[in-house]
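I keep forgetting this: the sequence line spells out the residues, with the fold written below as integer tokens. I include a record here:
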Amino acid sequence: MKITCGTDIIEISRIKESIENLGNKFLERVYTKKEIQYCESKKSQKYQHYAARFAAKEAVFKAVSTKLDNKYDIVWKNIEIVNDETGRPHADLIELNIEEIEEIDVSVSHCKEYAVANVVVAWR
């Protein structure tokens, strides 16, 4: 079994500016409907949650892209970051049938200024 990882950190202000300047154009290019619903439900802290999902998507891409050798064209919405019933985030790959992936583990965190994500992928 092969293990790969990806990490990303982003300033929450960058995501907030993108959303405020580009609005739905940015949101609909980067996030799925489930992700938008979740982040919008967080009211005053929504930008932290958008940024955490953005960082997680970047981290997933970093973890999987090194192993795929350009076999797949991955876009933002191919990676969906959702929470399970306990609130733990996980990544669903949408419209990507990457059979070599056994498991993807996602961890996100955020504070007032930054959001960070770490992803570990186990390959068959």
Notes: Residues 2-123 form a domain with the Ribosomal Protein L22; Chain A fold (CATH 3.90.470.20). The chain has a mean pLDDT of 95.
